[in-house]
Amino acid sequence: ANHLLAKIEDLGITADDSVVQNASMAFDISVWQMLAALAVGGRVRVVGAEAAVDPVGLFARVADERITVLEVVPSLLRAAIDAWDAGMPAERLPDLRWLVVTGETLPPDLCGRWFARFPGIPLVNAYGPTECSDDITHAVIRAEDPVGELRVTIGRPVRNTRLYVLDAELAPVPVGVPGELYAGGVGVARGYGGRPGLTAERFVPDPFGPAGSRLYRT
């Protein structure tokens, strides 16, 4: 529920929105794609497996059906832009408000190529593991925002989520010092079913949260 509300709040989803459900039911991201718009009276457009992996065809559906929110992986986005650059007809996407990218590292050059075609449609770089109920950060990226040459930020924690960069002793590291990202908050799972050893390794006591809470080692 927290993740659904995070998507609704951060993307400003309302009854006027239409969200594509293009993820397999086996993947965690399918949950928000199916339910977030419905929770506020909006519309969900379910696409089949073949349409979901057809880069040019998927964006054509977005244009034809006046979709306002779409989520894709960066590799599919790159394939679509490559096809348009090679001469395939490019859609205008007048109704698309957000393009959410997730599941893979978002390369800086891909942001530039997207904004070269669609400067008015912001990207949302979404990051999060299944063990934390899907996305734990959102980074809104607009055409005028500077994007680093090496990596794109994963942004800030979503609602009711805490993030820490810690050393091996679970102590915060200074800015610029490498560490491991730990996630805390209401979205952290209880552990892995039937795997107590792995649960103990990845879900550790939270020294910064309420008694009994745990952090997930990403």
TrEMBL record:
One term of GO molecular function: phosphopantetheine binding
Q: Which BP terms from GO are recorded? A: amino acid activation for nonribosomal peptide biosynthetic process; secondary metabolite biosynthetic process
Q: Which residues form the AMP-dependent synthetase/ligase domain?
A: 11-192
A Pfam family cross-referenced in the UniProt record is AMP-binding
Q: Which InterPro entries match?
A: AMP-dep_synth/lig_dom (IPR000873)
Q: Which GO terms describe its cellular component?
A: cytosol
This protein's name: NRPS A domain protein
Question: Which organism does this sequence originate in?
Answer: Streptomyces sp. BS39
